[in-house]
Amino acid sequence: MIFLELGVEMAAESAFPVTSDSPNALAAVEREIARACADARRDRSSVTLIAVSKTFAAEDIQPVIAAGQRVFGENRVQEAKAKWPPLMQEHPGLALHLIGPLQSNKAKEAVALFDAIHSVDRASLCEALAREIDRQGRSPQLFVQVNTGEEPQKAGIAPGEADAFVKSCRDVYGLTIAGLMCIPPADEAPAPHFALTAKIAARNGLALLSMGMSADFATAIQFGATHVRVGSAIFGTR
Ligand SMILES: *Cc1c(COP(=O)(O)O)cnc(C)c1O
Description:
Layout: H1 2-13, H2 22-39, E1 48-52, H3 58-66, E2 71-74, H4 77-90, E3 95-98, H5 107-113, E4 116-120, H6 123-136, E5 141-146, H7 162-171, E6 177-182, H8 191-203, E7 208-210, H9 217-222, E8 227-230, H10 232-235
Parallel strand pairs: 1-2, 1-8, 2-3, 3-4, 4-5, 5-6, 6-7
Pyridoxal-5'-phosphate binds at residues 52, 54, 75, 99-100, 183, 213-214, 229-233.
């Protein structure tokens, strides 16, 4: 709020329009993460902030990199491929996570570009990923997406099929699954969905939980999120 007011004031007084408040927004998100971690008696280092830069251009992303953010998320392979290689060359040490659905025929590009893939949800994709991981000798961290709300339009494995799916990822395809990812239904309280995802992860021996977006990342941290995916709270509305 303070930053928003300051931004308006600066815009009114400056000869130049305020083009981006993202470094301030990033700092505010960081403070909120630190507070949520303290409330949950968790170490700040147990939560990775993924800054979701989908739809934003490289020039919008640069100030966030300059402010110290190193982990970014994109939801489309083609968009990420066009945007990120130059940024990664310019700033060594960045990590890029694919948070959107992945078609099997893009597994090759995804394994080459991303450090983590959050949307593993079907056998054909497991097969394609296993092949590319083997061929390229690159192993992105893998998250199985769980469709906790069982929404027909949403990707992800149904909660009732998650245990068997994780097992087949391991036993049939030889994949190392690092954790689970969920996107709660937009019109429901997220907490039960976070709790369910954490429960499925625990009984399958999975340490990582990708859950929580701009509106609910503090709640997700309370329920054990190790990766929060925050877009609009950092970059502004899309
Ligand atoms: C866009 C997106 C986010 C970020 O959403 P915000 O509400 O802007 O923080 C997180 N996760 C996924 C899977 C997304 O597609």
